[in-house]
Design goal:
This protein is α/β, with parallel strands linked by helices and about 250 residues long. Helix content is about 50%, strand content about 10%. The protein contains eleven helices and five strands; from the N terminus they run H-E-H-E-H-E-H-H-E-H-E-H-H-H-H-H. The protein has a five-stranded parallel beta sheet, sandwiched between helices. Helix 2 runs parallel beside helix 3. The longest helix is centred in the middle third of the chain and has 23 residues. It is globular.
Length: about 250
Amino acid sequence: MENYVFDAAKQRDRLVEALRELSRQQGFSRVVIGVSGGKDSSVSAALCARALGKENVYGILLPDGEQKDIADSERVCAALGIRHRTLNIGEMHRALLAQVEPEREPGEGEFKLPFDRESNINVGPRLRMTVLRYAAQALGARLVGTGNLSEATVGYCTKDGDTSCDFSLLGSLTSVEVVEVGLTMEELPRDLVCKTPSDGLSGMSDEEKLGLRYRDIHNYLRLGTSGDPETDEKIRRREQANLHKRRMPVVL
């Protein structure tokens, strides 16, 4: 893939037309999208507005209690002129933890369920997807998947959370390419397209949590190597270990 060239404007237009064609084939006109204020959901929302019209895009803001950058989500919706609604998942999250009751001694025949930090971090994406599914069905809309190829490759996504959608809009683009597409869309605030990606849950950036740079994942996928054999092997191991997130469950 030494001659790999990415034309961001052309890819943007292809995705817009592909979404229009999908809507014609499947007979839908409305979409629901979770708007986090990061590059992926921002670019996805802008593509949907171009393809289907801003009046057919419903943005859902899903803070877990307090969200420091919730204003970024609101800016995206305002910039695109899409309708939006805030649905806070904080009470649902707390209710689930109260049911787990990690300090309670199990009764006869029961097992103890310990608190696990990573399990708790993944509760947020799964609750968000439940709320988004409710909204999409209630509005007669399809649910937009906003994850990108880089995240899927290394498993930086939550099974039954952000991997659940009716169609994946950015699934063929690396994280680097999503930014390039976003920068061709004048309706989007440039700083949000270039915003440092983070899950908003762990307090770390994506790259800090992964221990990998998105540029290296991009080069691994598009050029065949990140330029460093150790990094290539790290990406390869993660890709193999997380294939189950990209496939339907195994039928035995």
